[in-house]
Write a structure and sequence with these properties.
The protein has 14 helices and 12 strands. The protein is globular. It has a 5-stranded mixed β-sheet, sandwiched between helices. Strands 9-12-11 form a 3-stranded antiparallel β-sheet. It is of the alpha/beta class. It is about 45% helix and about 15% strand.
């Protein structure tokens, strides 16, 4: 048979784990009624009536933006100058960062992650990611002919596993001259883990050690940072980056989709940080060309709206966003407390959109996930666990959920 795509193309249709289960949940609700279905699949913020949250403080102004501003191209391929400046200030607010920096606008956090993967590594090289992580990291890597090495996110004691990061990086160093290490922090997707200041210090010390022989790029995916429970201190950890060696770069992947509850507007940014200006410039040049060659430019009005919100409507925005942070606190506290009471094992949760049940055996995980479905509980299967999207689950549906899950899990484990 003749094929019309490249030899290395993977011709298996994309079956996104999330979207497949979402469709099943939708159908179940149609047949059995909304109230009889627990839909914890969706990774977007929903209110207690189950409606997608679209912040008023963000969208009322967006609706008023002149049509010509919405229709026009961005000022340049790297984004509008005011947007780039505002993103840097927003991302690093409340910190005392002393590093050279630059910003490239991207279509959402996804654009920031994938363009960094392909700008830092050559085909056939390896990107290092957590073993429990957002599934698209793996897809972005394999679609671009990159390999994946996974570090264990947690050790046997359920603590952040710096030793596994070290082992994995040392292994990759043997075969490759440049290192790309990805961390998703704070509010990790899918576990809801947030690293401590001490853990960040250890990571930076290790990055500096690696940089003596190998240039290293540390990526921090901060998609959920603006829903961390303490917004005043959520960025303080970044100050550990001030101690970066000259041979290391930090790339921050920022998502307006999450921050501004505007998932479909496709707006985000890559923030490049390093001790030396020339390191930043080199990375910026490559990322800018990547942008031009991939998406050309990103929605002008999305950038303009972000700048307006953080400058002109900041207090309103923070106040409205806080309501949903409080809602997330309430939801997670109910679930985590009840899980503890009934002995439902999950990975260490600090804050964020998701909690992940801990099931180390993937075959077992599949069985539990299917049993949940049979009981009208819709979740997302991840590596070594099951992701529960508290962000989209109305509070009243969370009461008793952990108990129900534990009962179902026990019948499988017996």
């Amino acid at each position: 048979i003749m094929t019309f795509t490249k030899k290395s193309a993977n011709l298996t249709p994309i079956a996104d784990a999330v979207f497949t289960v979402v469709a099943k949940a939708k159908e179940d609700k149609r047949i059995n009624g909304e109230e009889n279905v627990i839909d914890a699949t969706i990774g977007t913020l929903c209110d207690n009536d189950g409606n997608l949250v679209a912040l008023k403080s963000v969208f009322d102004h967006y609706d008023k933006i002149d049509h010509r501003i919405k229709a026009s191209y961005a000022a340049s391929f790297d984004g509008n100058p005011n947007f780039r400046k505002d993103v840097y200030e927003w991302v690093t607010q409340g910190t005392n960062l002393k590093l050279a920096h630059n910003v490239i606008a991207t279509p959402g956090g996804s654009g920031a992650v994938s363009s960094t993967f392909t700008s830092v590594l050559d085909e056939g090289e390896t990107v290092i990611i957590p073993n429990i992580a957002w599934g698209s990291y793996r897809l972005m890597a394999t679609e671009n002919n990159l390999k994946i090495a996974e570090y264990e996110l947690f050790n046997d004691k359920n603590h952040f596993n710096i030793d596994s990061i070290k082992e994995t990086v040392h292994e990759v160093m043997k075969t490759q001259e440049r290192i790309l290490l990805l961390i998703n922090d704070p509010c990790e997707n899918p576990t809801g883990y947030t690293m401590s200041h001490e853990e960040w210090k250890e990571v930076i010390d290790f990055v500096n050690e690696v940089s003596k022989t190998h240039p290293i790029v540390l990526m921090d995916d901060i998609a959920y940072i603006d829903y961390a429970y303490n917004t005043d201190t959520s960025r303080k950890y970044m100050e550990t980056w001030n101690k970066l060696s000259d041979n290391a770069v930090v790339v921050v992947c920022f998502s307006c989709s999450k921050t501004m509850t505007s998932y479909g507007l496709r707006c985000g940014a890559t923030v490049i940080l390093a001790q030396k200006e020339e390191s930043v410039t080199e990375m910026k040049t490559v990322l800018e060309k990547k942008a031009r060659a991939t998406w050309s430019n990103i929605p002008n009005a999305a950038m303009e709206n972000f700048s307006w919100v953080v400058n002109k409507n900041r207090e309103e925005f923070l106040k409205e966003k806080q309501l949903y942070i409080d809602l997330m606190k309430e939801r997670s506290s109910i679930f985590v407390t009840e899980a503890q009471e009934v002995g439902l094992a999950h990975y260490p949760f600090r804050e964020g959109f998701f909690v992940t049940l801990k099931i180390y055996d993937n075959d077992l995980c599949k069985k539990v996930h299917e049993a949940f479905l049979e009981n009208h509980i819709y979740t997302v299967k991840v590596n070594r666990g099951i992701r529960v999207g508290l962000c989209s689950l109305p509070t009243h549906k969370i009461y008793g959920l952990a108990k129900k899950m534990k009962e179902i899990e026990d019948t499988i484990l017996k």
